[in-house]
Every structure is written in structure tokens, then in C-alpha cells.
Amino acid sequence: MIRKDGRFDTLVTYADESQGHTGGVYKASNWAYIGRTGPYPRWLDSTGKQVAQKATKNRVKSEMEALGHIKVGSFHKHKYVLELK
């Protein structure tokens, strides 16, 4: 459907190591492996839900901590690209 739409030349996606993902689905679907990103910190709120440091605005570590978020480590992501045209 995305190819037929014609608006995009390239798709980019990430497999998040913090979630145990390696990108096997992308590899099997012939996406090009570009490499690893980061590492970037992973933050959780008081309920254990993951929160983005860059959601709505960029927040520094002290702002995340002031909001009650807990850093649970730093993780890489695997980057994949699919050329559509």
C-alpha cells in the first residue's frame, strides 16, 4: 500500500535492543541493515511505562528525574532502511 501511494522513496525503522529486538523480521523482509544507534537512555515512569526523553520537548537528565522518571540503562537500536523506488 505504501509503494502504491507513491509519496515515499524510503522507509526507516528501528529494532530496540532494550525490548530484546534484533530486527529479524526486517532482515527476513530484505530491509538493508544500516548499523546500531546510540546508546540512548531508557526511562520509565512511576508505573513502569517507558517514557520518551524527547516527547513534546527535549528534556535533560535532571528534568527527567524531576518528573519522577527512572533511568534503567542505555541501549542501542538496530537501524534498517527499505528503498521503495
Tag the structure with descriptive keywords:
85 residues; three-stranded antiparallel sheet; 3 helices; 18% helix; elongated
Give me the secondary-structure category.
Answer: alpha+beta
Strand content: 35-45%
Q: How would a textbook summarize the main sheet?
A: 3 strands, antiparallel
Number of helices: 3
Instruction: Please provide the ordered H/E string of secondary-structure elements.
Output: HEHEEEHEE
Shape: elongated
Q: Quick one: how many beta strands?
A: 6
Q: For the largest beta sheet, what order do the strands appear in spatially?
A: 1-6-2
Total of domains: 1
End-to-end span in angstroms?
A: 13 Å
Given as residue ranges, the uncertain stretches (5+ residues, pLDDT < 50) are none
Helix content: 10-25%
Rg, please? 16 Å
User: Mean of residue pLDDT?
Assistant: 94
